[in-house]
Amino acid sequence: QWATIRLQKGAKKPQTQMPRTPTANGIIERDETPMEKEIALLHRADFEFSHIFYFCRKGFEAIVEDEVTQRFSSEELLSWNLLTRTNVNFHYISLRLTVVWVIGVVVRYCFLLPLRFSLAAIGITSMIVGTTVVGQLPNGSVKNYLSEVVHLTCSRILVRALSGTIHYHNKENRPQKGGICVANHTSPIDAIILTNDGCYAMVGQVHGGLMGIIQRATVKACPHVWFERSEMKDRHLVTKRLREHVADKSKLPILIFPEGTCINNTSVMMFKKGSFEIGGTIYPVAIKYDPQFGDAFWNSSKYNIVSYLLRIMTSWAIVCNVWYLPPMVRKEDEDAVQFANRVKSAIARQGGLTELPWDGGLKRAKVKDTFKEEQQKNYSKMLVRNGSVG
């Protein structure tokens, strides 16, 4: 609290090079008025050359801070949590605050990190050994029971390794067997957060290294659905295997993250429609992390998985809320895209997240030409509608 107050007051010498505006980034004040309304206002009178400055301003706003790229970097905090520079206004303030930060570094790296690393090693080893042993048993209720015990126990050890504090809400809506659990995606640890409270069948691509060892061991005891890289490109094959899994009501619910990439805990981006073409009951889950104790977001274009895990395990703690939403089924007059949007809206409302229509694939890919053409057509229609072309 003391550090936050100091940050809010700022340094003793005012920072005159940064203009004061009501916006969070201190650079530009965005105009949230829709383009359609602005164009209608512009063209109430005859065209003037100055009208083009409206589009220039909109272009500069998009360059400075667009709706997409800012979702792929760590969210800005209102105060400093003594971990990293998570506040653009933070700078050296006093020797006392520096001493507090150094003490925190010693505690996190010399005491918490070794303990957490030991717990993580125990959890991963137990997962590999336990699932391998259970996998040798014949299929039946005993094997399923022991598999769930192993998965739950090891997941809870791994959550302890992150000093995880998780609050689960509306447990009566927890996913049931034969269903599909869909959740917003912030971090690779999302799966551990959910399996700490129940067992799921995972869906994903086959990996090598340590992750590959874990995948091969767990699939022996639990009906996870792992795909080879070539199979992942065949959407029909993926859909077929998932339908076969959902059709068996004795199998665990499938856990899917429809965004396909990690978003920074502030928003929910476009859900891929494939998960909603399978059929069956959808169990939405909203996950919201508290960034005051640690940044759970994985910026994969900036940090590899080892660097990310080191940052997570040297945080103060991982604190989050998980809401189980009522099950949802596809309506007769809905297509897969409309159903996906309805589920996404429910998750965004419950988690207090911003709902965005953009594809998370823009994290690494360029905007498709077809999408640009669609926006150009919309722009042309607005101009024609307001009498600018004739």
TrEMBL record:
Belongs to the 1-acyl-sn-glycerol-3-phosphate acyltransferase family. Keywords: Acyltransferase, Endoplasmic reticulum, Lipid biosynthesis, Lipid metabolism, Membrane, Phospholipid biosynthesis, Phospholipid metabolism, Transferase, Transmembrane, Transmembrane helix. Residues 14-24 have a biased composition (Polar residues). The chain crosses the membrane at residues 90-111. It is a multi-pass membrane protein. Residues 1-26 are annotated as: Disordered. Residues 179-290 form the Phospholipid/glycerol acyltransferase domain. GO terms for biological process: phospholipid biosynthetic process; triglyceride biosynthetic process. GO terms for cellular component: endoplasmic reticulum membrane. This is GPAT3 acyltransferase. Pathway: Glycerolipid metabolism; triacylglycerol biosynthesis; Phospholipid metabolism; CDP-diacylglycerol biosynthesis; CDP-diacylglycerol from sn-glycerol 3-phosphate: step 1/3; Lipid metabolism. InterPro entries: LPCAT1-like, Plipid/glycerol_acylTrfase. The lineage of its organism: Eukaryota, Metazoa, Chordata, Craniata, Vertebrata. CDD domains: LPLAT_LPCAT1-like (cd07991). It is found in: Endoplasmic reticulum membrane.
